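Why does residue order matter? Because the sequence determines the fold. Keep that principle in mind as you read this record.
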Amino acid sequence: MPSYRLSALVVPLVLLGCTHAAEQEAHNLVGGNSESGKLAIEKYGCPSCHTIPGIRSARSKVGPNLDGIAARSYVAGVIPNSPDNLMRWIKNPPAVDDKTAMPNMGVTDKDARDIATYLYTLR
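Structure:
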């Protein structure tokens, strides 16, 4: 088999492995389900304000781009980035920072955990 064919097969498999590893790491850290998190992101309308990698419709510039959020030091620039703080922010941003433009969307505990799990795959 020519080497270009082999690399055409290997690269997608390596990327799939990286994606799976990131999902597993996020699950271990946060305890939610990243696939359910993607659905919850759509359900709560997050794409109307944010660009979110992996969410096809999420290309907005109202709120910050969430690419690389797992590697950031702070959530929304106001609290240290930890699973508990990210879930707290997702559930009720104005309770964390009364000057935020992000509204309380009524996100449930389970959905916040799943959304945070998905966001923690974004390194």
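The longest strand covers residues 74-75.
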